Amino acid sequence: MFSTCCATCHGKEAQGLAQVGSPSIGPPRIPLTDFMKYVRNPAGSMPPYTKEALPDTDLKAIFAFLQSFPAPAQEENPGGDAKSGETTFTNYGCYECYGRQGQGSSKTSGLRLGPVTLSFSAFKGYVRHPAGSMPPYTAKVMSDSELANVYAFLKSRPTPQPASAIPLLNQ
């Protein structure tokens, strides 16, 4: 199933294809529920896949396939100051699509960014050359040190808890 709907843009190994501006998607950096929501209602140039075109069972199988890829090698921490990164994240308007804490937004289809699981080089590559409707933040717009601060801020965000872990939602 992956090869018929995803590989054309994301590559046979889910590595992303620079010529079409698609990101690497293996292994997924978001939970299954967020992955399914995104595929159904994506941002940018990715077409939406309805349940009729791509049933939930097939989408779950694609997610499982993507999980089989090894995680990218972790690289050294680029440094950065989380508090300064929060200010930069706000000043550059990132919160407008991704929420004030990088938690994502259903209104804009902005994905959850925090805690960021990408390597700094992958994060930097995406910010400098994004896919979809996000504008590029070149080094002339946002310096590498500012980007390292934003990365530190997003790394510091808490891991989301499943709804079952929140007592009030279980009543």
Strand content: under 5%
Percent helix, as a range, is 25-40%
- Structural class of the secondary elements? mainly alpha
Distance between the termini: 39 Å
Q: What's the number of structural domains?
A: 2
Silhouette: globular
Uncertain regions: pLDDT < 50 for 5+ in a row?
A: none
Summarize the biggest pleated sheet: none
Instruction: Please state the second-level CATH architecture of the largest domain.
Output: Orthogonal Bundle
Q: Key features?
A:
171 residues, mainly alpha, Cytochrome Bc1 Complex, Chain D, domain 2, 8 helices, 37% helix, 0% strand, globular
Describe the structure in your own words:
By secondary structure, this protein is an all-alpha fold. It has 2 domains: 2-67, Orthogonal Bundle (Cytochrome Bc1 Complex, Chain D, domain 2); 82-155, Orthogonal Bundle (Cytochrome Bc1 Complex, Chain D, domain 2). 37% of the residues lie in helices and 0% in strands. It is built from 8 helices and no strands. The protein has helices at 2-5, 7-10, 32-40, 56-67, 82-91, 95-98, 120-128, 144-155. Helix 5 (82-91) packs across helix 8 (144-155).
Brief write-up:
The protein has 171 residues and is mostly helical. 37% of the residues lie in helices and 0% in strands.
